[in-house]
Specification:
Number of domains: 1
Radius of gyration: 17 Å
Shape: globular
Structural class: alpha/beta
Strand content: 15-25%
Distance between the termini: 31 Å
Number of helices: 9
CATH class: Alpha Beta
Order of helices and strands: EHEHEHEEHEEHHEHHEH
Amino acid sequence: MRISVAMAVYNGSQYIEEQLASILSQLGEEDEVIVSDDGSTDNTKEIVTGLSAEDVRIRVVDGPQQGLIKNFENALSECRGEYIFLSDQDDIWHPDKVELVMQDFEEGADLVLHDAQMVDDDKHMIAPSFFAWRGVRVGYAANLAKNSYIGCCMAFRRSILDLALPFPEPIPMHDQWIGLLAEKYGTVYLEKKVLLDYRRHEGTATTSHHGTFRFMFNNRRNISKAIRIRCKEIEAKNKEEET
């Protein structure tokens, strides 16, 4: 299997059909979309289950109902592809997203982070470039201080996924965790073309504002410690395999 799309969903019935249509139109017959439903109380699961009956590339799994990070971990653990794309439930993939990201992989990227345009519920423009709005840049120290990694704009090789799973506790977000590991052990490529409508609305899981200084300090401390521990585990495993 070539491509797996990991989608974590919860009460996403308003937009999920449009999002899945934008994804599936770009995938091959052997690719897959893993939809982990985290106990939706609307009809999200019924919608996705109905679509999966019509398209075998969609696989619906039950989430652990322990929040967004654990739900994404659940979706990722089910992925069988060599290339993993993360997906939110309410965005829209541009028609050339998969093609251009796969070109970046062919050129040697281990993780690709692409640009997006930010839109509201009705797809009216909020900002033409997430990269510009956020000041996106590569580098471990830079992304520990100010995270550029946003899951809906990320894709990576299985080798990066193998390093990232299982997710430790506590980490502030799964996408920063994966991105920082890619900074340590892989080649990160910034794709500057806008390949996604990144929808911002009241139900969006992540927010654009910063927390308190103490909150941000604790997040940095926690993820930095988790990275150090994982690096030691990786190095120990590599030494064991060499002997």
